[in-house]
Amino acid sequence: MIGADALLKSLENQGVKQIFAYPGGAVLPIYDRMPTYGIKRILTRHEQGAAFAAAGYSRATTEVGVCLATSGPGATNLVTGIADAYMDSVPMVAITGNVFGHLIGTDAFQEIDIIGVCEPIVKHSYFVENADDLPRIISEAFHLALSGRPGPVLIDIPKSVQIEEVDEEVWKNIELNNNFEHNLPGYDLTTILDLSDIDLATDIITEAQRPVVILGHGVCLSQAETALKQFLETTQIPTTWTLHGIGCFPYNHELALGMLGMHGTATANFAVANADCIIGIGIRFDDRITGIPAEFEKRKKIIHLDIDPAEFGKNVKIDAKLAGQINETLPKLTESLSRKIAQNRTKEWREKLQIKLKKWPLDTDKDQKLTEIGVLNKLYKIIDQEAIVTVDVGQHEMWAAQRFPGLAARKFLASGGLGTMGFSLPSAMGAAFAGYETWSVSGDGGIQMNIQEFATLVQDNIPVKIIILNNSFLGMVRQWQELFYDKNYVDTPMHNPDFQKVGEAYGIPSYKATTHEEAEMVLQKMKKHTGPVLCEFVVEKEENLFPMVPAGKHLSETLLNPTDKIDTL
Amino acid sequence: MKQILSVVVQNNAGILSRVASLLRRKCFNIDSLTVGRTSDNTISRMTIVILGDRKEAEKVALQLDKLIEIQSVEIMAPETAITREIAIARLGIHTNAEEKKCLKEVDKIFHTEIYRNEEEVCVELIDTAQGLDHFLDKMKKSDIEVREWIRSGIIAIKKPKN
Predict the structure, then answer these.
(1) A314: closest chain B residue by CA
(2) Which ipTM value was assigned to this complex?
(3) What's the pLDDT tens digit per position in B82-136?
(4) Which residues of A touch B55 (CB under 8 A)?
(5) What distance in Å separates the CA atoms of residue A555 and residue A275, rounded to the nearest whole number?
(6) What Cα–Cα distance (Å) separates residue A270 from each residue in A237, A259, A363, A392, B157?
(7) Helix (H, G, I), strand (E, B) or coil at A342
(8) Which CATH class is domain B82-158?
(9) Domain of A95?
(10) Shortest Cα distance from A230 to chain B (angstroms)?
(11) CATH architecture of B2-76
(12) What is the pLDDT of residues B44-64, one digit of tens each?
């Protein structure tokens, strides 16, 4: 048995059901052995597609998605997908082949130092020197990817290691699925839990007049939805969420304020701008929700719960911290508060926010012509309760985030941190393996960044329902050009192909809708269809997205439309 | 203000690059970084000196701790650490009487000559970073021709308790 066997059998032992991969010279020994093992191969049409598909699978299932590529360009094509997984704390294992061991460092054909390239964007990486190390490394990689703050792990395997004979004893242990002892003395998750600020946090929360909870990805990742509900029921604190916090908390709950941030709801932004206490749960206070950190911090106490101690005080000054898994720390805080807090203390604040929620509803679709908001509203009405929706980056992403709050946790998939166009289609491809109705929503710009994956959908009959919102513009950039660059539309108007024809050429049943009636009819057809299906919705060209916090401005300067700001306290 | 971090790392290939890459991408300002083996051959110890306040050092420590191969990071307060650094300097020998006198003075005070030929003498000094600053400064101001000098960056170990 050779290194390739050790790799594949170890992946099987980890429960890997499918890998998203693309062949090439430096992974041929692995491909040669693949049919022997029970792992399904999904042949993507670009390695970036493979990386996003693996991440899409991870995001939708909380299992580890796996992608594989050859050396050199195959490996560098994974980079954007790995970076995306790193920014969004997505557990993923990326495997690359490399040139023969004796050629490493010689600038050989298709040699690249992918370990070096990926250094800033992985949780950890391995350059494998001996085939006998593979079972331990695979086991460590999956443990690292999934535990603590999740993230991508890269394993680079020279071709010589893939064909190297594996020690008989080692192989026997792999076959028996025996544990391989980890060599990770620096990775001790038991030391993270730190509740030393719990009394301080309790005091701050009990004294607060205008507290607000901000929920983030950490709640989803640690599956702390129940702990959260108990916390909010005990404390009665109004709640908003980040892009990745969508689905952690029922959107129609009386404490729910909607999404926060640059394109958050007016009420959520008003609440956070005027709060005297923020409880950040599983968030990292990134610039898209804080605006200007120095302004954000002003006149408020901040309590931060997170698994990653390096996040405390990284972006904003905090007054109390609780380190650990949210489902461990939050119940402790609830318990501590339940003895002290008076629920009716925030009544006035809650009522004030309820008035704002009624005053500032999201834009509805009043347009005669078909708009993106119109299509998304129609889509939201017909999707399964458990459906997965993936989005690209831009206006449609934010409209969907504002309008799809009823999706469950881990069902709204977006490239939040990296903000990658081309994310939607391949991530939907991976997410579809979770087994739920899967919709990919893109603009005419984003879809063309990974349009080659149409072929993958057809080849493996992956049931992704593709929505292309075609406004013939890079809409978000165009909106900025309109508002801040005097409508100087440089390189945002797009000359596009006929997407319906492109879909048909790939063998995907494809539609086009230009009116409200057509849109409704086609969405029904798409819903019923069992394989991949596509529709191009030709929508209004210059629709603008609001609310909006202009870049470099504070949340209190949220614009409701081009001219009106939200109220002051 | 200088802050000393003592970092215990697994003795793996590439760990130096991971640390350096982290310090660069987070824009931390390094004054010196030394790495070497320890009494335990599975680990190495890095002594990283950064420019910044205690808060900055804490941020660096938390970020470093995220690297999987780092076993521990300790911010060393000056009063709890023994620190040493080596400097080596090449000095020109001239017949100038004043300079000869100076060189002799250097020799007498520091006993530091490690190499000599007809033109040059090499001296070494082991001291705290401040001690070396002082010594090099003193030589610069004297009549001695300092042709080149290098410093190792500091290493630090915890002071045994009384």
Answers:
(1) B59
(2) 0.91
(3) 999 999 999 888 777 777 777 777 776 666 788 888 888 898 889 999 999 988 8
(4) 313
(5) 11
(6) 15, 12, 17, 27, 52
(7) coil
(8) alpha beta
(9) 3-188
(10) 31
(11) 2-Layer Sandwich (3.30)
(12) 999 999 999 999 999 999 999
